[in-house]
TrEMBL record:
GO molecular function, one term: secondary active sulfate transmembrane transporter activity
UniProt keyword Membrane, yes or no: yes
Residue spans crossing the bilayer: 71-97, 103-119, 126-145, 165-192, 199-220, 240-264, 276-297, 333-353, 365-382, 402-422, 460-487
Keyword Membrane among record annotations: yes
Keywords: Membrane, Transmembrane, Transmembrane helix
Protein's recorded name: Chloride anion exchanger-like
Domain STAS: 515-700
Record's GO cellular component terms: membrane
Membrane topology: Multi-pass membrane protein
Cellular compartments annotated: Membrane
Gene designation: SLC26A3
Signal peptide (residue range): none
Length: 765
């Protein structure tokens, strides 16, 4: 037995917007001007100064509440675990950036120091990210290719190829930081909202494909030059297959073995993460084993294995960016800045929600901007965050960025004192570690069937972004993805799913009549719902859908009526003044389209017209069975000027064919805009607006029943036009109408004399 539902009963008057405004006075708020906002923004006092300092240095906020006894041990353990992962990923991701591996350790150190003071997230691990590394690597290989001369840049003179590449990577990172810092100062952190989860998923999947292709040469031990630009992945695969017979078996076997072991242990970490205090650092373990085996069996000389080689010991002096490189890489640096911030912000948002604290998008832009500028000065490349590394930092007990600071100190120790131990490490091991960590991004292919079932347009965005980024490159592909995403938004708003609503019996609810079995539609009333903003691009679509819903074109009906009325008036003139005089008038009178669009002039007629009655054979006017049209504006968020013009014209067309139009649930802002635009006139009145759909329907019922009570009836006369009118005037008006139209019919049939006998057809009320 179904549970009894709660019921409610409300007794109130039927309101229109006018009557509601009369009974309930509205508070008119005074909105600040742009100048006032600027003055408030530039005003400074002690409170604002304090808030500004706390905003720019979030470390002050969380250091004041730091619980040393509860949090410090967790931060230390987390920092050590994260540091081990950050070192391995830094070495591996440096290969993606086409740089010597040791510079990956710089990225694991310098940006973290700045983010420790300026960042608002307490759990993300700042450092290298494979997608950003690959995007930086595309610029590096374009300006400093492995085969052929580098670009004509003055700052390259006297530098080795590795030094030139480091200069390019640091300059691109510097410009990336400038872009991020500028966006943060201008408070445009909201820009990340334009990168939807679907777009980011498709983009990172394409990046994973690029990363996989770029690492195959290390896994197979081939000497394949770096290729950038459109179709670079295809050209790289072509080069790999050309050289496939030269595969280094030692590199291949070692890579496969490491990928299998790391994959299995990572799966076990996920399976038993609730029981493990700290995830097993399998990457570090396999790296240490590979280093020992490579050194002990002398893989470099015996099996011709490409190893990491000379590691930079300590830190080099800071360098300025190259202005020429900045000019050459400006187009690529901006999407790198956007992607880096978007990834970091999305990861930070996940952990802020989980641990109940807030993050500031604009401050994050400033933090990453300054971090990348500072890091670039010391030869590091683009920094963001990696989901896997951040997961290690959070899951191993990290509470604050002290864990990040400890991981940076571990990277510093390796750089300063222990770097030489990594020199025999085979590069194929780093490539294998990169590939095995792509599992999460490559598994995003499973989203395609899900998106296709749930939302085909979202699936188009995913596939379009992935294909564009895979084939055209990550920078162009991001633009393609944004374009596809914006096109889907335009498509949704330009072609919304309009519907005709009907009442759910026994309620004041109205739903799409196609969605429910038992609905009630009032005869002569149409309720049309517009589920999108109305603007210049969808005004015509909205009009076409409305004409389709009501079943007639009001402008065509109006023109037909005006033409028919002209014929009727001429025939009446023939009766009253003679045929010859009327013909002389016809030679002067012309009919223009603009005249036919004017309201029908029924003045000086000896009868009242009913356009739905039977007309003579040569007078054809479409029948209109609609007396009330209700437009549901509850989902209309704005109207532009073009839409207001189109709406005004359309409403007048319906009003001029005797259809009462009502607009319901219109937003107050739109009503204010309509008033300021001078939307209302003698035909379009404010009284046609109602606060709810049910108010409008009750008003229609009241008006229709009142007309019936007052005696407005429809008289049907054989062979004549009838009328709806007050019973006090039925007899005289009907006789005059019959007299005129019978004479008109006689003229149409060729009779030129008006018979004196009055022909009266029987009528039935």
């Amino acid at each position: 037995m179904a549970a009894m539902r709660k019921q409610y009963e409300v007794t109130r008057p039927v309101y229109s917007e006018d009557s509601f405004a009369e009974q309930h006075k509205k508070i008119y708020r005074k909105h600040k001007t742009i100048l006032n906002h600027v003055k408030d923004y530039l005003t400074c006092d002690s409170k604002r100064a304090k808030n500004a300092v706390l905003s720019l240095l979030p470390i002050i906020s969380w250091m004041r509440i730091y619980r040393v006894r509860e949090w410090l041990l967790g931060d230390v353990v987390s920092g050590v675990s994260t540091g081990l992962v950050a070192i391995m990923q830094g070495l591996a991701f440096a290969l993606l950036a086409s740089l010597p591996p040791s510079y990956g350790l710089y990225t694991a150190f310098f940006p973290v120091l700045i983010y420790f003071f300026l960042g608002t997230s307490r759990h993300i691990s700042v450092g290298s990210f494979p997608v950003l590394s690959l995007m930086v690597g595309a610029v590096v290989t374009r300006l400093v290719p492995e085969v052929g001369p580098p670009a004509n840049i003055t700052d390259f003179e006297g530098l080795t190829q590795d030094q030139q590449r480091v200069l390019v990577a640091s300059s691109v990172t510097f410009l990336m930081g400038i872009f991020q810092l500028t966006m943060g100062i201008l408070q445009v952190g909201f820009i990340v909202v334009y990168l939807s989860d679907t777009l980011v998923s498709g983009f990172t999947t394409a990046a994973a494909i690029h990363i996989l292709v770029s690492q195959l040469k290390f896994v197979l031990g081939l000497n394949v030059p770096g290729i950038s630009g459109p179709l670079s992945a295809i050209y790289t695969l072509e080069e790999i297959f050309v050289q496939i017979t030269s595969t280094n078996i030692c590199d291949l076997v070692m890579s496969i073995l490491i990928m299998v072991v790391v994959f299995i242990v990572k799966e076990l970490n996920d399976l038993y993460k609730a029981k493990l205090a700290v995830p097993i650092p399998i990457e570090v373990i396999m790296t240490v084993i590979a280093c020992g085996v490579s050194y002990g069996f002398n893989f470099e000389t015996r099996y011709d294995v490409d190893v990491v080689g000379k590691m930079v010991s300590g830190y080099e002096s800071p360098i300025p960016p190259s202005i020429q490189v900045l000019q050459e890489s400006a187009v690529e640096a901006f999407p790198i800045a956007i992607v880096g911030f978007a990834v970091a912000f999305s990861v930070a948002k996940v952990y802020s929600i989980k641990h109940d604290y807030t993050i500031d998008g604009n401050q994050e832009l400033i933090a990453f901007g300054v971090s990348n500028i500072f890091g670039a000065s010391f030869r590091s490349f683009a920094a963001s965050t990696a989901l896997s590394r951040s997961a290690v930092q959070e899951s191993s007990g990290g509470k604050t960025q002290i864990a990040g600071l400890i991981s940076a100190l571990m990277a510093m120790i390796v750089t300063v004192a222990l770097g030489f131990l990594l020199e025999p490490l085979p590069r194929s091991v780093l490539g294998a570690l990169v590939i095995v960590n792509l599992k999460g991004m490559l598994m995003q292919f499973r989203e395609i069937p899900y998106l296709w079932r749930k939302d085909k347009l979202e699936c188009v965005v995913w596939v379009g972004t992935c294909l564009g980024a895979t084939l055209l490159g990550l920078d162009i592909g991001l633009g393609v993805g944004l374009g596809v995403e914006l096109l889907t938004v335009v498509f949704r708003t330009q072609f919304p799913r309009c519907s005709i609503l009907a009442n759910i019996p026994g309620t004041d609810l109205y739903r799409d009549r196609k969605d429910y079995l038992h609905t009630f539609e009032t005869q002569g009333v149409k309720i049309f719902r517009i589920p999108a903003p109305i603007f210049f691009a969808n005004t015509e679509f909205f009009r076409d859908k409305l004409v389709e819903a009501v079943g007639f074109n009001p402008l065509r009906v109006l023109r037909k009526r005006n033409k028919a009325l002209r014929k009727i008036k001429k025939l009446l003139m023939k009766r009253d003044h003679g045929i010859t005089e009327v013909k002389q008038c016809n030679t002067v009178e012309t009919t223009t389209p603009s005249a036919l669009d004017l309201p029908t002039d029924l003045k000086n007629l000896p009868f009242q017209m009913n356009w739905n009655a039977e007309l003579p054979d040569n007078i054809s006017v479409p029948r209109v069975d609609l007396h009330s049209l209700i437009l549901d504006f509850s989902a209309v968020s704005f109207l532009d000027i073009s839409a207001m013009k189109g709406l005004k014209t359309m409403l007048k067309e319906f009003i001029r064919v005797d259809v009462d139009v009502y607009i319901v649930s219109c937003d107050a802002y739109i009503l204010e805009k309509l008033n300021s635009y001078m939307f209302f006139d003698d035909e379009i009145l404010t009284s046609m607006f109602f606060p709810t759909l049910h108010d409008a329907m009750l008003n229609v019922f009241e008006k229709y029943n009142e007309n019936r009570i007052r005696g407005w009836v429809v008289r049907k006369t054989v062979g004549t036009l009838a009328s709806r009118h007050n019973t006090a005037h039925v007899e005289g008006t009907t006789l005059a109408l019959l007299d005129a139209l019978n004479w008109i019919r006689a003229v149409i049939e060729g009779e030129t004399e008006h018979k004196g006998k009055r022909l009266v057809a029987q009528s039935k009320v």
